[in-house]
Specification:
The protein is mainly beta. Helix content is 12%, strand content 34%. It has a 6-stranded mixed sheet, with no helix packed on it. A 5-stranded mixed sheet has the order 3-24-23-22-21, with no helix packed on it. The radius of gyration is 35 Å and the shape is elongated.
Length: 408
């Protein structure tokens, strides 16, 4: 009877049943995973909101987007809203870390020097003049640390040595030397030279524009602009520009000038003279040396009567002003103060060492963020990003102008 009854039942479709059961199970799994992920996401979002909006000290702090560069020295504070650093004390220069350049560790006048005609150079690292019988001989140092001379003897100018700190053109090939009643230009890459006469006898300062063609030449109460072509024989067109009692104020492409409350950064605009760019608040009593531009930064040394943040006892503080042509917040100061007594003595206030006005001035830029300046017998480098001051070379000569070949 059981056999007869089972024969009447329909055969089950096992494959279809298994497929339907598996598909239903898979859909249940997917729903569970999606639900778990949504729950986790909600928990994370809620945690972030709690820590950010109501977490107090545990709130998330955004990452510092400006990592501290190696060798960074925190600034000493602000002077008139400008960030400043204190320079290493006088006497410590020998112990500073050194920047390697073609100038070596000690820069002295060379002995036997080859003629520039037999050893031309494409990139001048430095220029100086050597005394010879009351006149001066131009000497050139290449980016490969080789010296060469030009045999024309230069006459002294009203201020003494016929050398201006702005002598070397930006292309590193040309150098200009002030002369009584003119300017003497040397092309170190070809050894060609030219003496260009000028109306004034008192010429003391030279400064090149970025194209290494136009040259500004100045003296007290006189200033000229001219385009230099050493190979030409025709007298270049000489035009007058705005004059200054301080010959070293006439610089391009920028100049820093004016006293406290009237300091201005100005850009050279050709026949239109200088156009004001900004008015940095600097405690300037007098300026020292020329203005030099490096990238977006313009620098010049000044002497202050006093700076409250850097008190002095027997001398006046000096500072390098590095002023941005774009952002005033990028302005920087490096202040050179006195070296206090190593061992304080009751009743004694005099410092161990001081830096007299005139001992220190800017000589140019190593790159867009490193200023090069002379402090008595040392050439130093100040990095604006780190605040660090480094030693470049010890100077055993009088008078120096730097060129782009200093980078090697």
């Amino acid at each position: 009877m059981l056999r007869q009854a089972s024969d009447r039942l329909p055969e089950p479709e096992l494959a279809d049943a298994a497929w339907a059961a598996g598909f239903a199970h898979r859909r249940r799994q997917r729903r569970s995973i999606i639900a778990v992920l949504i729950a986790l996401l909600l928990v994370v979002v809620a945690g972030v909101l709690v820590m950010t909006l109501g977490g107090g000290n545990s709130a998330i702090t955004p990452p510092d987007t400006t990592p501290t560069p190696p060798g960074y020295i925190p600034p000493a504070g602000e002077i008139s809203g400008i960030t400043y650093w204190n320079a290493p004390p006088a006497g410590s220069e020998r112990f500073l870390d050194r920047v390697s350049t073609p100038l070596g560790e000690l820069l002295s006048l060379p002995g036997d020097t080859p003629d520039l005609r037999t050893r031309p150079m494409d990139r001048i690292a430095a220029v100086t003049v050597a005394s010879r019988g009351g006149n001066y001989l131009p000497l050139f140092l290449s980016s490969e640390s080789h010296w060469a001379r030009d045999d024309r003897e230069l006459r002294p100018i009203a201020s003494g040595r016929p050398l201006s700190t702005g002598a070397v053109a930006p292309n590193g090939k040309l150098a200009a030397f002030p002369q009584p009643g003119g300017v003497y230009v040397v092309d170190a890459s070809t050894a060609k030279t030219r003496l260009i006469p000028l109306p004034s006898q008192d010429i003391r300062s030279v400064s090149w524009l970025a194209n290494s063609i136009r040259l500004l030449v100045s003296g007290p109460g006189t200033a000229y602009q001219l385009d230099v072509d050493v190979a030409a024989t025709k007298q270049p067109l000489v035009g007058g520009v705005a004059v200054s009692n301080d010959a070293e104020e006439v610089t391009a492409p920028y100049r820093l000038d004016g006293g406290e409350g009237e300091v201005a950064l100005r850009q050279y605009a050709g026949n239109n003279g200088w156009v004001e760019v900004s008015r940095p608040r600097l405690p300037v009593a007098q300026w020292a040396g020329q203005t030099f531009a490096g990238g977006n930064m313009v620098g010049r040394m000044f002497v202050a009567d006093q700076i409250a943040q850097v008190p002095t006892v027997v001398s006046r503080p000096q500072a390098i002003a590095a002023i941005s042509t774009l952002e005033p917040r990028d302005d920087r100061l490096l202040v050179l103060g006195e070296t206090p007594a190593a061992t304080p003595t009751p009743g004694r206030t005099a410092p161990d060492r001081i830096r007299e006005p005139g001992c220190c001035f800017l000589l140019g830029w190593y790159d867009s963020e490193t200023a090069l300046f002379q402090v008595t017998d040392w050439l130093l480098a100040w990095n604006l990003r780190t605040g660090q001051v480094l030693r470049v070379t010890e100077l055993n000569l009088d008078g120096l102008a730097l060129g782009p070949g200093i980078r090697g």
